[in-house]
Amino acid sequence: MSENDATPARPGTDSGLAEFPHLAQLFAPGAAPAVDDQVVARRKGMWGSGSGPGDTSGFNGMERTTALAGITAPPFGGWFDQLADRMAELVPGFATHVMVHRGEITFFVLPERLVELCRALRDDEELRFEVCPAVSGVHYPEQAGRELHVVYHLLSYTYNRRIRLEVELPDADPHAPSVVPVYPHANYHERETWDMFGIVFDGHPGLTRILMPDDWVGHPQRKDYPLGGIPVEFKGAVVAPPSERRSYNQ
């Protein structure tokens, strides 16, 4: 993540692309978002809105824009190009864009190509990403039409490599296909992501809450979830829920 203005895309060059003929098939036509669509948050002040007496820090005039690291154009460098070339050969047009940041690569994948891509990543001799150690959700309310993201961390024991896949979904219809048929141990991670963010994994064998009670209303890790809670008792003392504690807005 970058806390500066939206990071410009790293320009690609034609040099070295001849060695990877399938990189041109990596992206779905017209699917890439604009560079300035990478902004995920705009904040003012230290604690609150930046206006009025609510911010007592002295930083109430501060403005900060938080953005993703940007869109990276091929070639990506190192083994990333060999990997991306093979992925594009097996599943052409699966990506909307790619982000290379701090030595790590993230492929932003169309939901409808996700399971096919995961199966290729697991089974192909040149890829061999045998494990999906984690599936997690992210909520970016500023990204209209793709507010909810699902992030899949993949690990290759064979080649000692790690990559990420990321699927962007609209808040109004947050459906992604389940990868449990490919990575069975993703079962509980998808349940937790549904529980915390409300992302529906179509085809999951038992998509029920895993952390919150079955009758819980809402999804607590979304940024629009109200700050509340229940009192906690400690041997006679009671700690109030966050929404009832000291307020800086008075």
From TrEMBL:
Coiled coil: none annotated. It is a peripheral membrane protein. GO terms for molecular function: NADH dehydrogenase (quinone) (non-electrogenic) activity; NADH dehydrogenase (ubiquinone) activity; quinone binding. It is an enzyme of class 7 (translocase). It is found in: Cell membrane. It catalyses: a quinone + NADH + 5 H(+)(in) = a quinol + NAD(+) + 4 H(+)(out). Keywords: Cell membrane, Membrane, NAD, Quinone, Translocase, Transport. One of its GO terms (cellular component) is plasma membrane. It comes from the Bacteria. Residues 109-229 form the NADH:ubiquinone oxidoreductase 30kDa subunit domain. InterPro entries: NADH_DH_suC, NADH_quin_OxRdtase_su_C/D-like, NADH_UbQ_OxRdtase_30kDa_su. The keyword NAD applies. Its EC number is 7.1.1.-. NCBIfam families: NuoC_fam (TIGR01961), PRK07785.1 (NF005856). Belongs to the complex I 30 kDa subunit family. NDH-1 is composed of 14 different subunits. Subunits NuoB, C, D, E, F, and G constitute the peripheral sector of the complex. NDH-1 shuttles electrons from NADH, via FMN and iron-sulfur (Fe-S) centers, to quinones in the respiratory chain. The immediate electron acceptor for the enzyme in this species is believed to be a menaquinone. Couples the redox reaction to proton translocation (for every two electrons transferred, four hydrogen ions are translocated across the cytoplasmic membrane), and thus conserves the redox energy in a proton gradient. HAMAP family: NDH1_NuoC. This is NADH-quinone oxidoreductase subunit C. The gene is nuoC.
